[in-house]
Amino acid sequence: MKDMSQTRQIRLADQELSSFQMPYSNLLQVQSGRIWLTVEGDAQDYWLGAGEQMQLPRGRKVVIEAAKGAARLVLTPLNSHFAQALPSPVAGFLKAAA
What would the DSSP string read from start to end of 14-35? Predict the structure, then answer.
C-alpha cells in the first residue's frame, strides 16, 4: 500500500489510472492536465482541471484517471483544523464524507 501520510506528487500519462485507499483526509490539487475522479460511496464522479482542487475523505477508495493528456497532481494530508477552514464546496464535501 502507498504511504499516504506525506505530501505526494503523482504523474499520470494520458488515460492512466491510479487508485488508492485514503487513510487520511487529503487535499488533491491538479497542477496540470485534466482528471476524472471517483470516490467510493459517492454517487457523483468529478472532472477537475489544472488549478482545481478537492478534499478527499479518509477511509474511502479513490480512483483517478488522466483525461485528454497527461496530468500532474499533488496530494496533501490534512489535519482536521485545516480541513474545517476550507471554503465551500470543499467544506461541504468534507461534512458529507465524515
Answer: TT-EEEEE-SS-EEEEEEEEEE
Q: Quote the mean pLDDT of the chain.
A: 81
Residue 85 three-state SS: coil
In whole angstroms, what is the distance from residue 50 CA to residue 57 CA? Answer: 21
Reduced to 3 states, what is the DSSP secondary structure of residue 96?
A: helix
Spell out the residues 6+ positions from residue 95 whose beta carbon is closer than 8 angstroms to its own.
Answer: none
Give the model's pLDDT for residue 96: 40
Higher pLDDT, 4 or 77: 77
Residue with C-alpha cell 471517483? 38
Dihedral sign, CA of 81, 89, 76, 52? negative
Residue 84 φ then ψ, to 5°: -70, -25
pLDDT(92) > 70: no
